[in-house]
Amino acid sequence: MAAPLLSVLADAALPTPPSAAFFAYMGVTSAVVFSGIGASYGTAKSGVGVAAIGVHRPDLIMKSVITVIMAGMVGLYGLIIGILLSANITPTGLTEFQGFAYLGSGLSCGLSAMAAGMCLGIVGDAGVRGNAQQEKLFVGMILMMVFAEALGLYGLIVALIVAVTAKK
User: Fold this and answer.
1) Its pTM surpasses 0.90
2) Which partner from 4, 5, 35, 160 sits 20 to 30 angstroms from 52, CA to CA?
3) Cα gap 34→113, rounded to integer Å
4) Are 113 and 34 in contact (CB under 8 A)?
5) Residue-wise over 20-48: b if at least 16 C-beta within 10 A, else e?
């Protein structure tokens, strides 16, 4: 009689410790907030450059908007990680290890996306201004922006790996 009762108790999920849930949700917050900061800074900084060249070279505005789009993309990285992490946080069964892993995952994605967004904004602003003076700079500007965007992708990849391996 006691053996079936013990097996039922062993299979029951333990309640999530409050500290594990706190750190897990801090990971969600970190991913979304820091990537949002990077995306908004990059969008604003490169948008100022696009607006500035639009005064003298309105023909280059549509060509230069790529800088604004690429800067805004890093915000999606944090959104993806935020959704993935929050879907895995449950009232039962979350361990402290998973909570810390989700924090690391969110920080990895958020901080790398913030750095990428800042880099994209600076390169985008200077690049579109330079492109307005010398159109041969466009390809070089795009290459610099691709490598800056890759910094955010590195953080996204690491965050995905950490989040998935923590669930095992």
Assistant:
1) no
2) 35
3) 7
4) yes
5) bbebbbbbbbbbbebbbbbbbbbbebbbe
Structure tokens at 150: 């890759």
pLDDT reading at 99 higher than 60 = yes
Measured in whole angstroms, the distance separating CA 163 from the mean position of its chain's CA atoms is 14
Q: Which of 9, 18, 4 is nearest to 92 (CA)?
A: 18
- Alpha carbon of 39 to those of 64, 91, 146: distances in Å? 17, 32, 15
Total count of residues recorded for the chain: 168
Amino acid at position 62, single letter: M
> For every residue of 61-122, which 3-state class applies, written as one string?
HHHHHHHHHHHHHHHHHHHHHHHHHHHHCCCECCCHHHHHHHHHHHHHHHHHHHHHHHHHHH
User: Mean pLDDT, to the nearest integer, of 112-133?
Assistant: 96
Tokens encoding 129? 């201004």
**Residue pair 88/163 in contact by the 8 Å Cβ criterion:** yes
Using DSSP's 3-state secondary structure scheme, residue 15 falls into strand
Terminal CA-CA length for the chain: 32
CA-CA distance, 45 to 68, in Å (whole number)? 9
